[in-house]
């Protein structure tokens, strides 16, 4: 009764653990499982039935059938080496069989997990590409990836992170395509994580980030299995975390945040064009309000005559300085955007109408803000959504305020210094050894095939040797 | 350790490099649009006492309506303010004292100089312009025969602001444009000669407006000699200047056919000119070649246009007409011994020894020993409808 006693001792507070003893003469065994956590029918047909049938031989023979020959139960099962492993397996949803007098337990993988069906990707939509997205179940996610790459080079390594949550993390990469240094670094960092829980992949993202002071994300997160698969083909590493539908890809460069899955499913011509537009509007969303404030307050002579007249006439009745106006509008926009995410869908429309009328029209009519500023803020807000990955959108949203502040203080000169400092910062960044601005800085002409634009597949994709 | 020191020093240098220029600008040089007033035109006159009068045409954003709201009737969106002083700077200072807003010069696009000031000499104005960093150098300069301030009375019917009307005249190359940088260059580098296009003001009876209205149009051009206006080019000569100094895209020329004295009009397209200097002994020849394409607009003569030799006749008539205009401009400049087209520059840089030789009697030499050769080639490329011979 060693293991059984040990377990009973530890599971006193767990009302959800069911233990059932079966006695057949001297052969006493106990089945443990979590209520609602296992497939009871499987347990009955494959475990309980064989146990309850009268055994023709001796107890010792039966024991060696179970433990050594593994021929007793008509299903797959594993033996535990330590009581801790047995407990882990039990809490992980497996059915545990303890035989009196034995230190080893028998684990049956009869987990029944609540699971969402694979649905359409909501945050990274494509028109022509696949629509599947990851779910919370890590094994479903893995199978979604495996369906897209049947190569035996795909390596899957397993980690359990979190002393209490014991979250399963899978590290995927393709052998031979991925640099051993990268694999080593990520492995070491994963093993070094000291935490009690990992609730989502963002825990890992922060734990693996060695420069948290930077606002730029160092890992790409995606809910699309096709994105993960192509990243693996490109020789990157993917981390799947149990219980979260957004999985991580490392290393990530600035470029990879500007690439959308759609780019690869449309013709190269239009993909390249859209990508260039995306870079343009990335810049717009970062600097447009700052440039507007700097030019109108410091350098109005830069504006063409007729444009100046329009701006000056609509600004004439506005009581605030341009920078205050810009901050009011930008903050109001952020507010609406943030509220829009939280508000239940039913009320959402009401709020957006109120927001549009109050902020869009009434504020201008009342002379609180000028119409050009409204146009600038709206254009900036919309362009920030052009960035395909939300984590970079957040960075841009934040940096915009910083740039706005310095350009209100120092004009275009300040804006320029801000951009230079930003460039210096970006150049100094790296993500797991890959320079953040690569392949632009350092310039790698070979990788240009899939950088600013996308060259046709046929020109650069070959069969691997 | 060494590397740490070096990085620290580099960081320090970077910080300083980014902070120092920031001091050049800063919140203290910030000015809201509401606190600025924008000058669109500067008008300079001189009164009978010899005082300089600077008038500036300001835009009034509060009187401009944008979007759908209609303009308040009878309110002009601009205002002319005048200040007097012994020179331009003083006059401007007096003007600024009474203004509630700071004056921003960056948008100024036109300077108009009155006759009396122009004849007294532009040197003080040039001095003011070259020292001031607030202007752009691409400001158009005009001349007005009379008190230039009066030009602001015009009714800008086609545009919102009078400045627009004046600016567009040079933009469309209806008169030879000149910008302050050209004048400053001529004054500092060459002999200080040049020309200024002329604006005129006349009362136009506009039937649709039910009254006579002051109307600003274009006239000839003023001839500047050594920074002073001394003569005036006629309208026809001004067209000659235009062709000589600019690549004109479109110009209508009307000529008389030599045979039957009937009129022929053609639209010249893409007029290109080439000016060179060639030394022949102690003389310099200035070959000027002007080439253009032409579309026939109207012809009264009953020529058979399907006959190429008749086309050549038309071309010849047009060429002679254009040549006349250019000659007229060149002749007036030479009569006045003025280097209006900056030809002296060719000699100065191409034949420096000759230039030194001439330096004693420069203006005389530039007239006596410089021979302009004008060659005009027009190619009639389109005759429109080919009318058959009346038979």
TrEMBL record, chain A:
Determine if Flavoprotein is one of this entry's keywords. no
List membrane-spanning regions: 276-297, 374-394, 401-427
Entry keywords, A to Z: Membrane, Transmembrane, Transmembrane helix
Q: Which domain of life is it from?
A: Bacteria
Say if the entry is tagged with keyword Nucleotide-binding. Answer: no
Q: Which family does it belong to?
A: Belongs to the GerABKA family.
This chain's protein is named Spore germination protein A1
Automatic annotation (TrEMBL), chain B:
Where on the tree of life does the source sit, at the highest rank? Bacteria
Keyword Membrane attached: yes
What's the protein's topology in the membrane?
A: Lipid-anchor
Bilayer-spanning residue ranges: none
Positions of the Spore germination GerAC-like C-terminal domain: 220-384
Q: Which Pfam families match?
A: Spore_GerAC, Spore_GerAC_N
Please list the residue ranges annotated as the Spore germination protein N-terminal domain.
30-199
Per UniProt, the keywords (alphabetical) are:
Germination, Lipoprotein, Membrane, Palmitate, Signal
Its subcellular locations are:
Membrane
Q: Which residues form the signal peptide?
A: 1-24
Q: Which NCBIfam families match?
A: spore_ger_x_C
Instruction: Give the family from UniProt.
Output: Belongs to the GerABKC lipoprotein family.
Q: What is this protein called?
A: Spore germination protein A3
Gene name of the record: gerAC_2
